[in-house]
Amino acid sequence: MKARLRRTAIFGGSFNPIHLGHIGLAKQVLAQGLADDVWLMVSPQNPLKPQIGLLGEAQRLALARKAVADTPGIQACDYEFRLPRPSYTWHTLRSLRREYGSERTFALVIGSDNWVTFSHWAHSDELLSGYRIIIYPREGFPADAAALPGNVTLLRAPLYPYSSTTVREAVRNGADITQMVPKSIATDVRRLYGGASNS
Predict the structure, then answer these.
(1) Which whole-number Å values give the CA distances from 50 to 33, 63, 86, 189, in the listed order?
(2) Of 106, 110, 104, whose CA–CA distance to 155 is shortest?
(3) CA-based diameter of the chain, in Å?
(4) What is the pLDDT of residues 135-182, one digit of tens each?
(5) What CATH number should be reported for the domain holding residue 78?
(6) Rounded mean pLDDT, 82-98
(7) Does residue 194 lie within any of the structural domains?
(8) Residue-range definition of the domain harbouring residue 75
(9) Phi/psi of residue 120, each to 5°?
């Protein structure tokens, strides 16, 4: 009998820095049986479009890996670092399918804010027809589960009251971040994002 393919959810982002909201959402994907594992796909820096305050990709990856080191089923991934840049989601998923298609299926995890503009994504029709999509709630962008296409699932998850921007601002202001990032990386986050140039 043919073995069942492992279901891997791709949760992409800059993770600048990773925080407990990211990890909490990934845990919910696993807890609700929507995937067997979650890959946090750290996006590389686009050399043509430098972003003020964006930490280097290797540092963001290292932070993410350290943050989930002891979290079963979740891993930080540098797959896009090896792809042509900028790497569009459809190209990443195509490459993943070519490389791992004999052992895995892939789903895409995006925020409800991204779902609103999803039709404008490159090859959105291909993404919608070829992959399962998991939407997590974002404040100000409600999604109606009943109105979603059949292969799109609304994740039952809380609205986390902070973001990577919030974390960076807290660091600059000398505020406590222990409720926003894993303890394992709190010192690193304060050190790496403490410079006045970050925004």
Answers:
(1) 38, 20, 12, 21
(2) 110
(3) 59
(4) 999 999 999 999 999 999 999 999 999 999 999 999 999 999 999 999
(5) 3.40.50.620
(6) 93
(7) no
(8) 6-161
(9) -90, -5
- Is there a contact between 119 and 47 (Cβ–Cβ < 8 Å)? no
44: how many CB neighbours lie within 10 A of its CB? 20
Question: What pLDDT does 196 receive?
Answer: 44
Structural domain includes residue 177: no
Question: Is 138 within the bounds of a domain?
Answer: yes
Give the CA angle between residues 186, 80, 19 to the nearest 5°: 20
Query: Residue 167 domain-assigned?
Result: no
Q: How many domains does the chain have?
A: 1
Task: Report CA-CA distances (Å) from 169 to 80, 111, 185, 195.
Answer: 27, 22, 16, 11
Nearest partner of 83 among 23, 10, 26, 5, judged by Cα = 10
Task: Give pLDDT, residue 47.
Answer: 60
